Amino acid sequence: MVSTALNYVNGTWKASGSGQTKESSNPADLKQEVGFYQNSTAEDLDQTVQAAKEAKKGWSKLTGAERGAFLYKVADIMEQRIDDIATTASKEMGKTLAETRGETNRGIAILRYYAGEGLRKVGDVIPSTDADALMFTTRVPLGVVGVITPWNFPIAIPIWKTAPALIYGNTVVLKPASETALTCAKIIECFDEADLPKGVINFITGSGSVIGQGLAEHPDVNGITFTGSNSVGKEIGKQALSRGAKYQLEMGGKNPVIVAKDADLQLAVDATISGAFKSTGQKCTATSRVFVEAELYDEFKDLLLKKTAELKVGDPLSDSSWMGPCASKAQLDNCMYYINKGVEEGATLLTGGNKILSDEGFYVEPTIFECEDHSQTIAQEEVFGPVIALFKTASIEQSLELANDVEFGLSASIFTTNISSMLSFIKDMDAGLVRINAESAGVELQAPFGGMKQSSSHSREQGEAAKEFFTSIKTVFVK
Ligand SMILES: NC(=O)C1=CN([C@@H]2O[C@H](COP(=O)(O)OP(=O)(O)OC[C@H]3O[C@@H](n4cnc5c(N)ncnc54)[C@H](OP(=O)(O)O)[C@@H]3O)[C@@H](O)[C@H]2O)C=CC1
Ligand SMILES: CCCCCC(=O)O
Known about the structure:
seven-stranded mixed sheet; globular; 39% helix
């Protein structure tokens, strides 16, 4: 039976005032309807924000431990529903079931991490120059936080924004990407069953230009945390700034892998394939450029092509599939645009480049270009699909220079056994995540996450770093 997701407002599931719903479809099975979600209106949004506003005083008065107890309950409930949530995510956006199960477990671990944050210190005692005074800092919540999330991590990202927002005393209005509205609704069902006070967590679906933009503009929304494309993120930042709201943007990436002549060849190839093609390359941390020192280039290229040819592309619900489809027709078209651009601009197509299984879904082959000109479009722009631009370089220094020669700075990897190459990379690579002998994707939940340059608004998510965005510091002086 195809389900219809309702909005969750003030502790109640309710339909949009528009009476309209939109369909969530399966990119791996064009004949399948996954379900429907509310096509909400600005009026629906205002009601949702008012519910969050009404709830914020009571929620912020609870202790961190009391708020944390709710998050532990949500995690326990979610743990009973891993397969349902993961299957829904795979059906909505095409990630393999193994990956969505892993992501659901990651969401559960994030909830438990932030539940524990409710018992950790919030401020510092700072010595005053006045012997009769006491000076210290404390932290207060922002108030109502708007959460706008993308479709590529439909479980982990809504949770890694919502959990810290809640534990630090904020109330939340969550707007998921339309492609993955039902997955997010299943996560909200777990919050509903944990009996959080009404209005603390609210969930509303609908188009980004109405509900997302409405959140960015709403005068009663005190903070906006967004993950998605640069074009949308920049608009949200402008709107939030214009009304004095705090905002946090995590956006695109164009992540390099550098392979030194002294690298472990097998490790470098396996990590490049995983980083570039897992999740069909639809990660902001995905590998899209690979720079290999000349001495190792031919061996690396041959092994990369051999192992890429072994990848099985197919139904994400099948255990035998290694890579699923693009998340939508728009994503497939976007991917084909860049593949055609690569050919037009003279890059050499070494493998892939074609749509496949077209009567079943939005599938594309894992694709590798050999490039010489780093100014080419496929070396500069984010493809957000399974496409690698491969370069031969004369040295580590040249590799590092090219790796930095893009407007993004999210994640970067180097494969080397040379300590000085590793240290130069750590120091000189302009990226928020620098990884040695490990793929460019895969962030741990307890560590700060975020980009440099055009990848981010320069705040950090995850771990203790999230506290900096979801709270404001107060300096207290007592005499
Ligand atoms: N740096 C990072 O951590 C990450 C970055 N990304 C980036 O996100 C992009 C792919 O994700 P995608 O979902 O397509 O990104 P989009 O920017 O298109 O959408 C992201 C979210 O913003 C909403 N939205 C769309 N238009 C507006 C608007 N005018 N105002 C407010 N909100 C709006 C969307 O709603 P709707 O779905 O209804 O359109 C969705 O919920 C890639 O560029 C990728 O690099 C993705 C994940 C992580
Ligand atoms: C927002 C994107 C997160 C990427 C997490 C990863 O690389 O596993």
